[in-house]
Design the sequence.
């Protein structure tokens, strides 16, 4: 009886003005004039434009392969985009006729014969809100997960068919849907090319910086790969946003910070030495002081990669290296000094410093820390002598190339007689490596 009453109860239509396309906590995107968005159609070339200093808005900047963006200051969605397949199909109709399929692709000028229209029709209906109520609550998550594969099957030329579906998933209220879609941005940009990436993917990538930590985590995993496919001026636009990723709501989510530290190393090839020194290195320095060891380890690798790319500018390279020494080498907290030992080892491993720097800076610092009162510090030095520094044992113990060779050998002998058993074990192993 209750079922009959509910079935006969009238459905109250709620005006669209009561709801926005975004979740309620999210700030409304400011209106954008369509005339401000000037994307060159595929195959066309962008004429060179000279920037006018008196103009409030910068001139268009050439994109990769001639594609242009008119304004790099804001990456937002186009307004008044109609999504034809939402609220236009009947959820009970599982066998669509030509009229339903025609309504689904209304406004899309691209015709494809790769995927049967009925199959594509059912896939695009997975984003319909009524499907969540009648079929499966996770149907949109499955749709977002399969979306990159469907895009790959259809190819770049048929992206206009799936554009509105992408935006619907990007604006979905479920964070799992947005996270799944954010994880595939780099793969999608590879398939659809730079023009569609700038117009359709870039606004969602920009919104991910303001989204929940879970969505940010999906975006961060492939952030470097996605930015790699964008022009330099767009990549520079996102540099100040990287620092905001360090401050997350859940401080216990150390995997988020670990993934961010890994991405910092991959971002270094995309930026100049000045940008690396100004934006990427400060984030890495913050992360090497993290409480979780895996985060510190990834951040140390990022600093080593950054210093390697800073080698083109010796002034910036020496400034960063000196700052690290002043901050960590003689810190009163033994954990900071231990981080410094690990940093020196990582620098040698990644060849981020020259042989001259290794002899003049790293070796003296190692010999000084070999006399530290904390066992873990001496253990780190002894362990490095059997690891990365062991590869340079002949060079370090050669008095002709290294004036400090005698002091180096004395340090090794003192570690062999250390009160700590583990320190003695590693020092003995290091001595055996040098003898061979």
Sequence:
């Amino acid at each position: 009886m209750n079922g009959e009453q509910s079935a006969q109860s009238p459905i109250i239509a709620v005006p669209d003005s009561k709801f926005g396309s975004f979740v309620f906590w999210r700030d409304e995107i400011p209106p954008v004039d369509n005339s401000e968005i000037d994307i060159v159609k595929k195959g066309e070339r962008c004429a060179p434009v000279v920037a006018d200093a008196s103009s409030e808005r910068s001139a268009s900047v050439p994109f990769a392969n001639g594609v242009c963006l008119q304004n790099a200051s804001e990456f937002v969605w186009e307004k008044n985009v109609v999504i034809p397949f939402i609220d236009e199909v009947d959820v009970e109709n599982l066998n669509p006729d030509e009229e339903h399929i025609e309504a689904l692709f209304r406004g899309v000028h691209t015709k494809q014969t790769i995927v049967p229209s009925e199959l594509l029709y059912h896939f695009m209906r997975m984003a319909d809100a009524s499907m969540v109520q009648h079929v499966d609550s996770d149907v949109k998550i499955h749709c977002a997960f399969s979306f990159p594969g469907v895009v790959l099957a259809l190819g770049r030329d048929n992206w206009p068919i799936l554009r509105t579906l992408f935006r619907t998933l990007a604006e979905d209220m479920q964070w799992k849907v947005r996270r799944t879609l954010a994880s595939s941005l780099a793969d999608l940009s590879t398939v659809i090319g730079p023009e569609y990436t700038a117009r359709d993917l870039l606004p969602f990538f920009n919104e991910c910086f303001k989204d929940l930590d879970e969505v940010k985590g999906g975006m961060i995993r492939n952030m470097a790969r996605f930015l790699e496919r964008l022009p330099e001026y767009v990549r520079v636009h996102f540099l100040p946003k990287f620092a905001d990723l360090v401050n997350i709501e859940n401080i216990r989510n150390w995997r988020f910070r670990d993934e961010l530290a890994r991405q910092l190393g991959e971002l270094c090839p995309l930026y100049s030495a000045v940008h690396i020194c100004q934006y990427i290195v400060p984030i890495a320095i913050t992360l090497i002081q993290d409480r979780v060891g895996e985060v510190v380890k990834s951040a140390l690798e990022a600093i080593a990669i950054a210093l390697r790319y800073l080698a083109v500018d010796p002034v910036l390279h020496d400034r960063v290296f000196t700052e690290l020494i002043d901050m960590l080498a003689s810190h009163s907290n033994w954990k900071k000094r231990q981080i410094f030992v690990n940093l020196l080892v990582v620098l040698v491993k990644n060849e981020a410093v020259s042989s001259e720097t290794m002899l003049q800076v790293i070796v003296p610092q190692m010999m000084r820390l070999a006399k530290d009162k904390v066992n873990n510090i001496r253990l780190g030095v002894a362990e490095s002598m059997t690891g990365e520094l062991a590869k340079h044992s002949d060079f370090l113990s050669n008095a002709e190339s290294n004036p400090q060779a005698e002091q180096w050998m004395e340090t090794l002998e003192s570690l062999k007689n250390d009160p700590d058993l583990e320190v003695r074990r590693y020092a003995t192993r290091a001595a055996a490596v040098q003898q061979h």
